[in-house]
Amino acid sequence: MIFVTGGAGFIGANFVLRWLAQHAEPVVVIDKLTYAGNRENLAAVDGDPRFHFHCLDINDRQAVAALLARHRPRALVHFAAESHVDRSIHGPGEFVRTNINGTFELLEAARAYWSNASATERAAFRFLHVSTDEVYGTLDATDPAFTESTPYAPNSPYAASKAASDHLVRAYHHTYGLPTLTGNCSNNYGPFQFPEKLIPLMTLNALDGKSLPVYGDGRNVRDWLYVTDHCDALQCILAAGRPGETYNIGGRSEKRNIEVVQSICSLLDELRPKPSGRYAEQIEFVADRPGHDRRYAIDAGKIERELGWTPRETFETGLRRTVLWYLENADWVARVRDGRYHSWIETHYGNGRRGQEGVQ
């Protein structure tokens, strides 16, 4: 059995669904069900005897410890996090609470469980921490891509909170021997992503006839990773990664933000054409975000060499699959875009400034 924190969120839900489709091993999901944690994301496995769900805050160490003792998992995959950069700028406290304090409480619960396990259980156990490329800071256009040895230089409260959690995970391996693994991924996209992130936000705004707000000059670069490729990489790390090691996971798909938005518009012109005009006419350049990192790029050579993982999707194939998913799942979109989502977007991005970009 494996534990998955944040398993009702975007990447976590995709991981759980993919795991249960490919493995007989049961999964216990822990999720607090905040605004981005959607229980409906896991509806396809409701009733599956291998699937167990608990609505729980990872800061509740006692409750987490009780579940570990009850289910005795061989691995813990830690997705639970606040992940939207713009939200961290407006309210960093929750990012500290969840990403730093929550990871600490989870590590303490895992360490106690692992320390008291049998020798066989101790040898098999893994703590897989899911992190981001944003911990490395920003790159200039000609800089080499981030590697696992790139010094940390986080530039947003979100990135700083994830960097702190990475350091805690590393310390628990080197100090206590806890068999930890870390994956630092680039920008994920795909089904079930909350509509505050760039690709779903632009897709849905375009369909609604709204402006498509692009920060600054639109030339900020991100490496895009289709979510199931990320999930497959995490499975490889869990199966064969060396305890204490970090693995960078990237899609080898560096794109400027404006290119991404233009690609979405072109796909919608093909798949859902407007009665007149083209979706690109809705693009609007807006004031840049404070501290907006210019470029992220991932060198995924280590995981490719050591574990044999490479991404299956190109950006073009992954983006088409993603846009089609949002077109075909309008009911899911309608239920997700509730009053809390609308009020938050209006509060922070009213008057022509709307959120668009984040990693997880």
Condensed summary:
With 360 residues, this protein is an alpha/beta fold. The protein has helices spanning 10-22, 61-71, 85-90, 93-115, 119-124, 157-176, 198-207, 227-240, 257-271, 301-307, 315-328, 330-336, 339-349, and strands spanning 2-5, 27-31, 51-55, 75-78, 126-132, 180-185, 187-189, 212-215, 221-226, 246-249, 254-256, 283-286. The protein has a domain at 2-194 and 222-252 and 295-313: NAD(P)-binding Rossmann-like Domain (Rossmann fold, 3-Layer(aba) Sandwich), CATH 3.40.50.
What report would you give on this structure?
44% of the residues lie in helices and 15% in strands. By secondary structure, it is α/β, with parallel strands linked by helices. The protein has a domain at 2-194 and 222-252 and 295-313: Rossmann fold (3-Layer(aba) Sandwich). Strands 3-2-1-4-5-6-10 form a 7-stranded parallel beta sheet, with helices on both faces. Helix 6 (157-176) links the parallel strand 5 (126-132) and strand 6. Helix 2 packs parallel to helix 4 and helix 4 (93-115) runs parallel beside helix 6 (157-176). It is globular. The two termini are 25 Å apart.
Lay out the secondary structure.
Elements: E1 2-5, H1 10-22, E2 27-31, E3 51-55, H2 61-71, E4 75-78, H3 85-90, H4 93-115, H5 119-124, E5 126-132, H6 157-176, E6 180-185, E7 187-189, H7 198-207, E8 212-215, E9 221-226, H8 227-240, E10 246-249, E11 254-256, H9 257-271, E12 283-286, H10 301-307, H11 315-328, H12 330-336, H13 339-349
Parallel strand pairs: 1-2, 1-4, 2-3, 4-5, 5-6, 6-10, 7-9, 8-12
Antiparallel strand pairs: 9-11
